[in-house]
């Protein structure tokens, strides 16, 4: 088996203007809270925020590339707790919660924390098919 209950992995990434622009182009989500500084200043956030699903994409990256290359992302739930701003550095943290070895499925706690404060911005749980069962 490629990993055990309790195993952890993490990746730290800076959220850049380029990421936000590329995500908007890929997804078609040009919400002005992400794209328009003048508009964003009028919101409760006071400045532009990154798309929440950029965090989801970074979780996917960490699952695929750090936990066990070759696994399949089956499901994910996410709760957005705090905004992530352009220029913030975040750490994606994964922790293996349970393994159904007979089926090849694994439940993973997923957290995205702002650095250096370690404030949780996104939390959730993912289900993956372990690489050796693909």
**Overall strand count:** 5
Q: What share of residues are in beta strands? A: 35-45%
Give me the side-by-side strand order of the main sheet. 1-3-4-5-2
Taking all residues together, what is the mean pLDDT? 95
Describe the structure.
It is a single chain. This protein has 134 residues and is an alpha+beta fold. It has a domain at 8-15 and 52-133: Thiol Ester Dehydrase, Chain A, CATH 3.10.129.10. The chain is 26% helix and 37% strand. The chain contains four helices and five strands. The chain has helices at residues 17-27, 32-35, 37-40, 52-67; strands at residues 8-14, 72-80, 89-100, 105-115, 119-129. It has a five-stranded antiparallel β-sheet, covered by helices on one side. The longest helix is centred in the middle third of the chain and has 16 residues, at 52-67. The protein starts with 7 loop residues before the first strand and ends in a 5-residue tail after the last strand. The model has no long low-confidence stretch (mean pLDDT 95).
List keywords for this structure.
alpha+beta, Thiol Ester Dehydrase, Chain A, elongated
Topology:
Blueprint lengths: L7 E7 L2 H11 L4 H4 L1 H4 L11 H16 L4 E9 L8 E12 L4 E11 L3 E11 L5
Antiparallel strand pairs: 1-3, 2-5, 3-4, 4-5
Describe the structure in brief:
With 134 residues, this protein is α+β, with helices and mostly antiparallel strands.
């Amino acid at each position: 088996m490629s990993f055990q209950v309790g195993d952890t992995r993490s990746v730290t990434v800076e959220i850049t203007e380029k990421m936000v622009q590329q995500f908007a182009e890929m997804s078609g989500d040009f919400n002005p809270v992400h794209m328009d500084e003048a508009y964003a200043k009028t919101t409760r956030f006071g400045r532009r925020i990154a798309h929440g699903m950029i965090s989801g994409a970074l979780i996917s990256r960490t699952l695929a590339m750090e936990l066990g290359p070759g696994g399949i992302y089956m499901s994910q739930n996410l709760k957005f707790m705090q905004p992530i701003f352009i220029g913030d550095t975040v750490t994606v943290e994964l922790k293996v919660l349970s393994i159904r070895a007979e089926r090849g499925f694994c439940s993973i706690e997923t957290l995205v924390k702002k650095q250096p404060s370690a404030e949780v911005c996104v939390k959730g749980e993912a289900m993956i098919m372990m690489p050796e069962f693909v």
